[in-house]
Amino acid sequence: MIEVKDIRKRYRRRDVLNGVSFTAAKGEITCLIGVNGAGKSTILKAIMGLTPISGGSIHIDEQSLRPQLYEKIAFVPDHLTMPSGMKLSEAIKFMADFYDSWNNARARELMQFFRLNYSDKIGSLSKGTAAKFNLLLGLGQDSDYLLMDEPFSGIDLFSREAIANVFTSDLIEGRGVLLTTHEIGELEHLIDKAVLLQDGKVSRAFNCEEMRYEEGKSVIDVMREVYRA
Ligand SMILES: Nc1ncnc2c1ncn2[C@@H]1O[C@H](COP(=O)(O)OP(=O)(O)OP(=O)(O)O)[C@@H](O)[C@H]1O
């Protein structure tokens, strides 16, 4: 389980996170929801140790963050970070060389699943195709947890559907997924737990199915209550 407890983050005298606490369990898809600038990416970066936090703690499977733990977590940032002149085949080779946890068979499966071409260059990919390849670079790692920053941002309906299919496939099964979004869209029926951020804090965190059965509300209904209040 990823346990984020009371984390705080200050950027240039501005408090962005004011004591954020939530958990993301293995085998579940947890979605961090918040308007632009709410601090979603900052939380993912803090979990990945890419930005220091000003207070609070983060534990993965009850252990505090340290470099070895990152073999357990794959991070899919909101854009592809590979050089534009690299071919997809070269980027895959780079990942295989760099990560002990790289799973070539799964990468091949995903290349087919997303209908990607090994000989294409990173710089020539459309936004949606780049998003699929970015996801492949995360899913290609045999990690227990997968963190994804806005995997659907700016992507057309068909590419979004292809990416959404990954969430219901055995490519995800058993892993803990933590993703961010500012619009829930077709993610609504895929996620297990929603964590709504507001004013640097968690305003609501709930199991989506329980919310539907017990209060008859969808994630969007709760978002309306929180963000329109
Ligand atoms: N390196 C930085 N230096 C200064 N301020 C920053 C830095 N990174 C982020 N911020 C600020 O922190 C706040 C939270 O940013 P963050 O990117 O975490 O939000 P977000 O919820 O992911 O937003 P979006 O939905 O637009 O991606 C924003 O106001 C942003 O301007």
Automatic annotation (TrEMBL):
One of its GO terms (molecular function) is ATP binding. Pfam families: ABC_tran. Residues 2-224 form the ABC transporter domain. Keywords: ATP-binding, Nucleotide-binding, Transport. CDD domains: ABC_DR_subfamily_A (cd03230). Gene3D superfamilies: P-loop containing nucleotide triphosphate hydrolases. It comes from the Bacteria. SUPFAM superfamilies: P-loop containing nucleoside triphosphate hydrolases (SSF52540). InterPro entries: AAA+_ATPase, ABC_transporter-like_ATP-bd, ABC_Transporter_VariousFunc, P-loop_NTPase. This is ABC-2 type transport system ATP-binding protein. It comes from Paenibacillus prosopidis.
